[in-house]
Amino acid sequence: MERIRITYEKTGAMRYTSHLDLQKVWIRALLRAKLPLAYTQGFHPTPKVAYAWPLPLGWGTKGELMDIWLDDPEGKEADPEVFIREVNRSLPAGLRILEIGKLPYSDPALTIIIQSAVYQIFFPEIKDMEELNSKMSLLMSQEQIERERRGKIYDMKPLIEDWSCGKTTDGEIFMAIQMAARDSAMGRPDELAAALGFDPFAVNIIRKKYILQK
Amino acid sequence: MQAKEIERILDTFLLKIQKPGRYVGGEFNAVIKDPAAVKTRVALAFPDIYDLGVPNLGLSIFYDELNKMNDVWAERVYLPWEDMEAEMRSRGIPLYTLESKTPLKEIDIIGITIPYESLYTNVLTLLDLAGMSVFSSERDESCPLVIAGGHSTFNPEPMAPFIDAFAIGEGEEIFPEIIRCYQEWKRSGTTKLQLLENLSHIEGIYIPSFYEPSYHEDGTLASLTPVHEGAKTKIKKRILPVLPEPPERFIVPSIDVVQNRVAVEIMRGCSRGCRFCQAGFITRPVRERPADMVIRSLSAALEDTGYEEAALLSLSSSDYRPIQDLVTNLHDLYQQRKLNIALPSLRIDTVSVDILEQLRGSRAGGFTLAPEAASEKIKTTINKYITEEQLLQTAEVIYGRGWTTIKLYFMIGLPNETMEDVQAIADLAIKVIKIGRRLVGKRSQLNLGVATFVPKPHTPFQWAQLDDPDLVAEKQALLKNALKTPGVKISWSEPDSTMFEAWSTRGDRRMSNVIYRAWQLGAKLDAWADHYKKDAWMQAFEENGLSPEFYVHRKREANEIFPWDIIDTGVSKRTLRREYENSLNGVLRPDCRTGCYGCGIVQAFHDIQPEEESVRWFCPVPEKG
Questions:
Q1: A2-107 sits in which CATH class?
Q2: Exposed e or buried b for every residue in B42-73, given b needs 16+ CB within 10 A?
């Protein structure tokens, strides 16, 4: 059996597919691509696939990770280029594999080795980068950033590991932010946007990549 | 509003909407074409939400077929749920096609499928949300041509003022003919009236504006007369003499919908002649797809979609001659893969249990059978005669082989029915659950689906009245009291939805006023029980001087002219009447494969009836002379 780590992007219409539905989309696509998927043991065997952290509905991702396990791959699966081309052909618009890599069969799970995630938050209402910069600096100057999640008060500040503001060539203002992404400490960029005083549904969030444990 | 603008605005609010994935398209197998490279753009519309529309087989067939035509681009459109409808209206977003986000009004032809009556008001919402008048007479050449088909259009009259042209019967041939006709008309640059006239020459097309109804003093129809030169006096439904290859490309949605599966029709038509069954009469003659064609297309579609579920559809699967071959081959092909194959409408016998056992490993979901009636009298009345012994034997085998749940479908409110006949359902149910208890113990379950019978057009019961609501309630209470047995669960049809179906299915053209008014008063998404607005409908009847009673509880005279008589299904009205009388006189009619009764279908379609053995119908081939 072989384990393959897939880096993919989820953009466009696919942003409106939930994590639960996405799992079905992937299984069907992998079946369409006729990969020799390994199945789980048990009464209801399903293809063995492991995802990273769920992406909230509406967010995009340019560096999402998932692991799949294959039975004795040979032929097209052996060549990464062919693999990517074949599977991409089986994917709906908005879902695309960027790269793949092999890894030891029993390496720890993604959700264990992921430390942080880097996001881009786009603010359609902001026209001036300095405005965003100063809002954020002001927020970060507080001792604590108290937010509420599912009825519990927590401090967001320690979840923010790094941040900077930027502007795309199209003039869109964004913030690049690195937040903790561990089971016990999960930074939410939409909650940061709310802390900055924005409607969290009106900002556009893209997960750029994960930072893994060395 | 342009497509680009629609797309931009959608992104600003879709996250506030339930299941936004319904409104963005982009699914696997969705067809994108260059609008500049096609001549005609078609929108295939299902007038309810995405979740129900995507699995619709009829539209899947057209989507596949029409997009194979180089100069045609067929896109899809569904009705938004009410939260989305409200957002669209407040932001001025017109209804758009999913593939290109093109406003519906800019499309050439809108093809709406109306399989059942509770979609009628949704059709009005669809047209209105597209920014068009709901009335055909108020839409000119600048609007798309609006056509409709599907089983409920076998009585087109209730929807007559809203639809430009109805396509009656099977659509695989007629749809391309409509498109060619439209293309020629477009080149000629003439009026919409001219387009409708051209279309009216196509067999199976009904142009409602070319006909006018008149009524007797008692409210019954006196005539439905052609008022346009050349309009046909009868519209004969279209059929395909030989079933074509089924579609192989199915849309694979990126969100969950009601059925995520590949569906293949193995057979069209039914020879059983159950007198309540509209599908059985309007889809004649019986035509089978060869087993190898079914397997080939099913395999291709499964590979292409990645679905792990398939359904083999027909009205009576056990009557499909190569059923055993088909099942054995599918078993051999797919026993390795976790494939779940549904084969509905099996006969009630032990062979069916063998068949289902071969098809699926899982016994979840139970085993479904539809005896419909329990007493000798009613079994004869409806012409679906399954002996009690046969049913109990089958139940014995089902529970015996490890199924814990049996679902039985029955009907109440049938002509001639008494309380004794209803009691017989309860008695039978108790016998069945006793078998379950004996064989699988307390885990055994019997689910009874008890529907209230609604008389449908083009069936022998089209003359019958709907049962009195008080009597229906009494019958339901009887069953409820008689079946407090552990392990038995009963589900009913809602009295309101029964009434709704009853008046809309046999409505005349005046019913369109009621539909329009009820829609104005807020009736929409009528198929959703919690949305059904009874008050709106009652007010609409009253304001139009009509009564539901007239349509629902009135027994029709033998010689009454029906609004749907304009449609010729091939089965003669004389045949239907004879069958109605047989039902009242307790006369059974065996399956017509055992001998032709001359229902009329062969006479109606003799000119296209194939003679080769491999594709022959079950009807006798008349001598050609």
A1: alpha beta
A2: bbbbbbbbbbbbbbbbbbbbbbbbbbebeebb
